[in-house]
Amino acid sequence: xxxxxxxxxxxxxxxxxxxxxxxxxxxxxxxxxxxxxxxxxxxxxxxxxxxxxxxxxxxxxxxxxxxxxxxxxxxxxxxxxxxxxxxxxxxxxxxxxxxxxxxxxxxxxxxxxxxxxxxxxxxxxxxxxxxxxxxxxxxxxxxxxxxxxxxxxxxxxxxxxxxxxxxxxxxxxxxxxxxxxxxxxxxxxxxxxxxxxxxxxxxxxxxxxxxxxxxxxxxxxxxxxxxxxxxxxxxxxxxxxxxxxxxxxxxxxxxxxxxxxxxxxxxxxxxxxxxxxxxxxxxxxxxxxxxxxxxxxxxxxxxxxxxx
Length: 308
Hints:
single chain; alpha+beta; eight-stranded antiparallel sheet; five-stranded mixed sheet; 7 helices; globular
């Protein structure tokens, strides 16, 4: 796809004559990973906690969450403080993931077709040769993107006229972790996942010059009312050596591992004291290729040039 390719999504999802002459319909809401398109982003915090990172593009804001034991990123496109698109992509190579429609990461295009049927549209992205299989459902579309004939990117979008009709949500911002009152929420909180979540958070947030945060120490703090673990306080240093600070994480409701396989997915480069697994990105830019890729696809699908 090209940086001009989600007007094409608009044309692909809604006939121009209908959009020009008729009021926008109110289709049944659709959800992906428990996130309903059109719901206020503020409502996600009790369920998903704070995002790992927030990426701003010229036309959208992406809130990135960590789910499924640290296996996948869930990227929520935020416009007018509501969720307008949801994407799932692997955090690490080879991690397992199957969506509610039965498509799994690693499937070939033929296997996706066998599971989901004939796509309503097939397109090839000239930037990297990846192939998109589009499955339209009314005003919504599911996009299954394959690299080297392996599925590793799933996105749910809605036609721009319907997205434009979403009621704006209340203004909200993620907690910055500077104090207990502004502690970063990890939800659901899980003894094993919390460690992975914090490591990923520090690695994704830039600091200094070409740096990101790395943990140097941590301590737990109880809730004085319940006498149960409620906070993790992490001491961190910027990898360029210019800054140190504490991060406060809210881990109320911490439980034992609850995912069906009791598996978590750890990037060795995010462990305290380990070498970085990849060169850090310049300050202010997304540190990981996957995040840049999400941004590129968002821009492409908001400005499509054709429906072919």
